[in-house]
Amino acid sequence: MSAATSPPSQRTRIKICGLTREEDVAAAVEAGADAVGFVLYAKSPRFVTAERAAQLARTLPPFVTPVLLSVNATAEEVRAACDLVPGATLQFHGDETPRQCAQAAGARPWMRAARIPLEASVPFDLVNFASLHEGATAILLDAHVEGYGGAGKAFDWSRLPPSVNAHLVLSGGLTPASVGDGILQVRPRCRTLAVDVSSGVERAKGVKDPAKIHQFVAAVRAADALLARSTDALLSPT
Ligand SMILES: O=C(O)c1ccccc1NCC(=O)[C@H](O)[C@H](O)COP(=O)(O)O
């Protein structure tokens, strides 16, 4: 697989996930989020119905993408949700096979969650995983946790391969304090990087904290600026 690294001028995109309230969608949009995630998994404390997700998605301005997150849903359930939320990107976060993801998604863009074991002794072949899911728009890297996701747990980013020819979304336990390091460590290993957060910007499960959202976005912007400056310095030494 060809080597891949994102250019220094690239902007890290941001997804705020697990939104259940209009005021939190507004806070994410005003802070500069590129995407907002709606959890259609009934066992999640951040669960919203597809109808509720559609209601929330209708408050979005242009160029902010709604993401519909499902866990082991049927293709019919996924497509019914897509009919209610036009323009949504899909996120498969359960045990779905590549074929099940592709069949459910049809022509719509979809992300596949790669759930990375927290134990360093457990290998995870991300390059192979990405090649198995080549129809995916991006691979979302999350920690392998009980309940599938949204646990506020971070996996060891150093366990990722030095290069993967894929668009990655770094997720799992990110906070305003940690996201900068995540970008500096992971962005050089992939084609493009986005970051995804839920617990790290919450007051309670499903209730976001606008101040934390703004802090998270500011930390992403600072990391991008640092990457650009350091690369400029390398490319044009005095
Ligand atoms: O957010 C949930 O409750 C959830 C439940 C079941 C499967 C996936 C879930 N969230 C998926 C996401 O994309 C989260 O943003 C991701 O797991 C990171 O969550 P956090 O570690 O809390 O930032």
Automatic annotation (TrEMBL):
Its EC number is 5.3.1.24. GO terms for biological process: L-tryptophan biosynthetic process. It is an enzyme of class 5 (isomerase). This is N-(5'-phosphoribosyl)anthranilate isomerase. The gene is trpF. The keyword Amino-acid biosynthesis applies. It catalyses: N-(5-phospho-beta-D-ribosyl)anthranilate = 1-(2-carboxyphenylamino)-1-deoxy-D-ribulose 5-phosphate. It comes from the Bacteria. GO terms for molecular function: phosphoribosylanthranilate isomerase activity. The keyword Isomerase applies. Keywords: Amino-acid biosynthesis, Aromatic amino acid biosynthesis, Isomerase, Tryptophan biosynthesis. NCBIfam families: PRK01222.1-6. Residues 14-218 form the N-(5'phosphoribosyl) anthranilate isomerase (PRAI) domain. It comes from Ramlibacter algicola. Pfam families: PRAI. Belongs to the TrpF family. HAMAP family: PRAI. Pathway: Amino-acid biosynthesis; L-tryptophan biosynthesis; L-tryptophan from chorismate: step 3/5.
